[in-house]
Every structure is written in C-alpha cells, then in structure tokens.
Amino acid sequence: MRVLALLDGTLADPDAPLIRIDDLGLVRGDGIFETILVVDGKPRELGPHLDRLERSAAMLDLPAPDRAGYERAAKAVLDNWSGSAEMALKLVMTRGVEGGDGTPTGFALGLEISPKVLAQRAEGIAAVTLDRGIEPGLAERAPWLLLGAKSLSYAVNMAALREAERRGAAEVVFTTSGGSVLEGPTSTLIAVRGRTLTTPPATLGILPGTTQAVLFQAAEQAGWTVVVEPIAAEDLFTADAVLLVSSVRSITRVHTLDGRALPDSTALHAELHALYESQY
Question: Can you cite an annotated GO cellular component (predicted)?
Fold first, then answer.
C-alpha cells in the first residue's frame, strides 16, 4: 500500500505521473528527504525529522522547507493509511524544475516497511566495512561535499549495499581511510561495551541520527553511560554489541562483520530495544 499527499494536504495517485522529467531531484539528485517510522498512526520524532530537513535544506542552499505544508501532507497520509500498523513516512523536497522559477517540489509518501527489514530487526544482520574516502575535518574543509546532509544523492550508498551483497552481507559500516567508523548507508552505528553506548561524532561528516538520540536519552535515564567519540573499526570486533539504528530499521544488531562472528548480543539487543520503545 502507498499513500501520496502534496503540501496543500490533498491526496494524489501514487501510480500517476507527478514528477516532471526535468525536475532536478530526478535528473541530478538535487534535493533532500527524511524517512519517519509511524506506529499505530503516530509518527516518531516528527519534529526532529523536520528540523533535520531544514538543516539539510540550508546545507544545499535550498529554500526553507514549508514546515506547515509537510505537517499537512503527513497528516493526510496518516489519516488515509489503512495498511500495516507500522509504516514508513517519507518527506521529499527537490530544487524543482530545471530552468524554472525556483519553486521546490515537495510531497509526503506513506509506504509499507519491507519484510526483509522487519526480519533483520529480529534476526540481526551481517555487515562489511567499506572505505568511504572521508577523513576527519573534511566536512569543515569542504562544505560543498554536503557531508552530513540527507540529500537524494544516494547512488554511492546504494552501490555500497550492492557490494555488501556481493560479499555475502546485508549491510555496510563505512569507515575513514584511517580506519575510524563513520555510519551505515542508511543508519547510525552504536558500539556497546559494558554499560556504555558510543557513537561517532557528527564532526566526521556523518548524519546525526534521530533514533540514536532517542536511544541515548532512554539509556541515560536508565543509568547507562553514553559517549560521542571516534571509534576504531578494529574495536568493533571486541565490542559487546554493534548496532545499526535508524527510523525504519529501529535497533538492529550486527552479528557478523567482515565474515567474522561477533559476540552474541541477543540479550543486550533486547534490553536496548526495550529501552528505545519505552520512550513511546
């Protein structure tokens, strides 16, 4: 099932033509998006996702997103959803038509979550480390690379996932050339040691995670220590748990990395997933 809504709150047919062939989001990937988990009709962290959409727009020199319009479109999707209890709500904004008047293209789309993702949540995943070609300080030295923006330019991320599949894995952990952990193509990485959760800093040029932020808040309230600092990729093999988290993926454990089995983190995963869910 899919439900498509425009920013004025009206519904559109998701199977009918909507995007012009000269839309810059289509021909150049020149745009931004957010994906939000919705459970029982309630979007999770809608405000922080809209905040991040605004930050991404500023990084791409796009007009400020019509926040009220996206809220209307989201409501229209949710009010007309009759599919599964869990769904993905995608908010999209492009630079609009090439050579046009600068009016952005914007819409909200409700989608079913794939059975593959739901199975990975429960069973965990195998991942591989891949060099992203990013070094510390690059985001500040070269802001035009848009590191940390959630743009539509996902060709590299999708190519990385195809490489993971060729290597017999389902996911990727990006690293710097120096061996520091970055993030997954569509997720934030968290390493667990004892009662400490660690995630890499956004200053490395990665996207700050909304799900990671919620989990860290819940963990702190429960007495865990949370740390934002660089992580060496080699240290993942001795961590008590390696997690990839995102809105739709939720809290997913990595059970195998680069073909090597990681310590069994089933119990830790269950505990941290329960902490995350306790926020809702």
Answer: cytosol
